[in-house]
């Protein structure tokens, strides 16, 4: 029989909890934020919560996967190396941005890189490198990784009980690999909250199918012997594909920036656009983007060959 408390207590502490909440009614009436951006002084964001579980029983060598400029890859490199793990990253091209370039340079300064020419070939490379290593999936999204957001949902429930914010009807998160969505969907009922998780799609369907999300929610819930709560996958904000800017996302990044929030156009900008266009109800935007400057992680002499960004999106579905 599952023992939820024992399972949720089996993690290695990385972050500083609870992450703060605040009113965002200047952006949209009834909107609040829970901000995971600075939960670690070196590198924050939602991946820290997942890595607390994924690194708890990891082998000496770990390998993970992500597009060039992946926040998950950098978070794994930063926190894995701090725990004395050797970190390898399998990566593939994406659309270029200055921000992605800086994240990639920081990752290269810590991890051993294995560049591939497509999303599909990167998966093949990851499989070949897995022997003898702990394989951490893309985005840290596995039933074990999702436990970080089960615990996050319980943390949110405690903040609501203390009167720090009202109970939300909906929680908006970016959905790339869906671990954040799955963890919240499982954890919110455990926290006594009748809240629907809205996963805002930021990757093509070929990379994240509805059935994939359903399976991850069910497997995470099975670890704890519970039943997932309500969730939806919102496809309306993806635009022309992964890492491609949308006008709504750019506008959301700009307006959030006026309130001191640092979003980006690939993930959180699209999720914020969805939250801002909802016209009624108490809602929560979950800030999953790192807020700690990564400049100190980027070697001063680092540079990249522009050819590595040459990707036409042909494998994006």
Poorly predicted tracts of residues:
311-317
Total strand count, please? 10
Give the class from helix and strand content and strand pairing: alpha/beta
Shape: globular
The H/E string reads HEEHEHEHEHEHEHEHEHHE
Overall helicity: 25-40%
CATH fold name of the largest domain: Rossmann fold
Mean model confidence by pLDDT: 93
Instruction: Give the strand line-up of the largest sheet.
Output: 1-2-10-7-8-9
Proportion of residues in extended strands:
15-25%
For the biggest sheet, the summary is: 6 strands, mixed
| Radius of gyration computed on alpha carbons | 18 Å
CATH-scheme architecture of the largest domain: 3-Layer(aba) Sandwich
Oligomer status: single chain
What is the count of structural domains? Answer: 2
Number of helices: 10
Question: Regarding CATH, which class of the largest domain?
Answer: Alpha Beta
Give your account of this protein's structure.
This protein is an alpha/beta fold and about 325 residues long. The chain has two domains: about 5-40 and about 140-285, Rossmann fold (3-Layer(aba) Sandwich), CATH 3.40.50.1100; about 50-140, Rossmann fold, CATH 3.40.50.1100. Helix content is about 35%, strand content about 15%. The protein contains ten helices and ten strands. The protein has helices at about 5-10, 45-55, 70-80, 100-110, 120-130, 145-160, 180-190, 210-225, 245-255, 270-275; strands spanning about 20-25, 30-35, 60-65, 85-90, 110-115, 135, 170-175, 195-200, 230-235, 285. Strands 1-2-10-7-8-9 form a six-stranded mixed beta sheet, with helices on both faces. Strand 4, helix 4 and strand 5 form a beta-alpha-beta unit. Helix 6 (about 145-160) packs across helix 7 (about 180-190). The chain is globular, with a radius of gyration of 18 Å. The protein starts with a helix and ends in a 30-residue tail after the last strand.
